[in-house]
Amino acid sequence: MDHVTLNNGVTMPILGFGVYQVGPEETHAAVAAALDAGYRLLDTAAAYGNEEAVGAAIAASGVPREELFVTTTLWVQDAGEEHTLRAFDASLTKLGLDHVDLYLIHQPFGDYYSEWRAMEKIHAQGRARAIGVSNFSAARLLDLALNNEVVPAVNQIETNPFHQRTEYHELLRSEGVQIESWGPFAEGRNGMFANPHLTEIGAAHGKSVAQVVLRWLLQRGVVAIPKTVSPERMAQNLDVFDFVLSDADMARIATLDEGGSQFFDHDDPEMVRRLSTHRLG
Ligand SMILES: NC(=O)c1ccc[n+]([C@@H]2O[C@H](COP(=O)([O-])OP(=O)(O)OC[C@H]3O[C@@H](n4cnc5c(N)ncnc54)[C@H](OP(=O)(O)O)[C@@H]3O)[C@@H](O)[C@H]2O)c1
């Protein structure tokens, strides 16, 4: 498995496994199968309600902890230093771990300056080997990076062939922030899996659309965390290290960019209101 090196020297697998929208009952089997298939990077979040199941699958797998790279994420309601420290402890307890490899702020809303100060402490204690953010726009990311001690190691943002964010990626790279793609397949929206360009490129390499998309991300140095509950697709999504997309393939994929989210815009006032007030049960 290829790795990237984060801005604090920690290495992270470039390809992992995400468990958004996988119910707690299904999660144990999915994570067990993913570990079995060879995934070592796992991405969960307090908001997904499945940290316990992820932890149980890790414990049952027998995979040595040091081989794993476990990420979890803080929800907005846990803003404030004290709340953040408590939320982090709750996540660790649910995961059954004494540290995570990456702890992220899930959304760029609320009192994230306080959250970041608490996360800097957690990081200094070695309880999160790296800390980062998710869904932060350029302005918010730069503001946080410029006015705090620790520069976020990662920004986990929607990135896929329909929403490529090339300029923003360049900025993040120049600031030393690793880009991690969520929604690499846009959850199949906009006909991703039947897209004729991606299908043709895949056929030429003997690969599926999903494999082309993941390979495209990897060749751009972007960490990807595709989700699937199918063991066959887990294996397929990992099998992307034996081919290379040509410059012509990459240029063709560049033409698919639609310049906007396939889901929603984090700057949309309605979404700011909704996400800022959403509380976990
Ligand atoms: N920070 C954030 O705000 C945020 C937001 C969204 C997601 N994420 C993270 O990013 C991860 C991935 O994003 P996502 O789950 O939204 O979407 P995604 O990975 O783009 O798409 C998942 C969908 O693609 C299907 N799929 C997976 N592999 C396939 C293949 N080889 N062929 C055909 N279909 C395939 C899955 O179906 P099956 O399961 O039926 O196979 C599922 O419906 C999440 O799990 C989560 O960890 C973070």
Summarize this structure as a short list of keywords or feature phrases.
281 residues; two-stranded antiparallel sheet; oxidoreductase activity, acting on the CH-OH group of donors, NAD or NADP as acceptor; binds NADP nicotinamide-adenine-dinucleotide phosphate; 15% strand; globular; alpha/beta; 8-stranded parallel β-sheet; TIM Barrel
Count up the helices.
11
Average pLDDT over all residues: 96
Q: Largest sheet, order of strands side by side? A: 3-4-5-6-7-8-9-10
The structure class reads: alpha/beta
Please report the first level of CATH classification, the CATH class. Answer: Alpha Beta
Shape: globular
Q: Oligomer, anyone?
A: single chain
Determine the CATH superfamily: NADP-dependent oxidoreductase domain
Heteromolecules bound: NADP nicotinamide-adenine-dinucleotide phosphate
Task: List low-confidence stretches.
Answer: none
Count of extended strands: 10
- Mind telling me the C-alpha Rg? 18 Å
State the CATH topology: TIM Barrel
Biggest pleated-sheet summary: 8 strands, parallel
Helix content range = 40-55%
Number of domains: 1
Ends apart, CA distance between termini: 37 Å
Binding site for substrate: 106
Organism: Serinibacter arcticus
Family: Belongs to the aldo/keto reductase family.
Pfam families: Aldo_ket_red (PF00248)
Structural overview:
It holds the Pfam family Aldo_ket_red. The protein is an alpha/beta fold and 281 residues long. It has one domain (3-277): NADP-dependent oxidoreductase domain (TIM Barrel). It has eleven helices and ten strands. The protein has helices at 24-37, 51-61, 81-95, 112-124, 138-146, 166-174, 196-205, 209-219, 231-238, 247-254, 269-277, and strands spanning 3-5, 11-13, 17-18, 41-43, 69-74, 100-105, 128-134, 154-158, 178-182, 223-224. An eight-stranded parallel β-sheet has the order 3-4-5-6-7-8-9-10. It has a two-stranded antiparallel ribbon with strand order 1-2. It is globular, with a radius of gyration of 18 Å. The relative contact order is 0.14. The site of NADP nicotinamide-adenine-dinucleotide phosphate (NAP) has 27 residues, from α9.
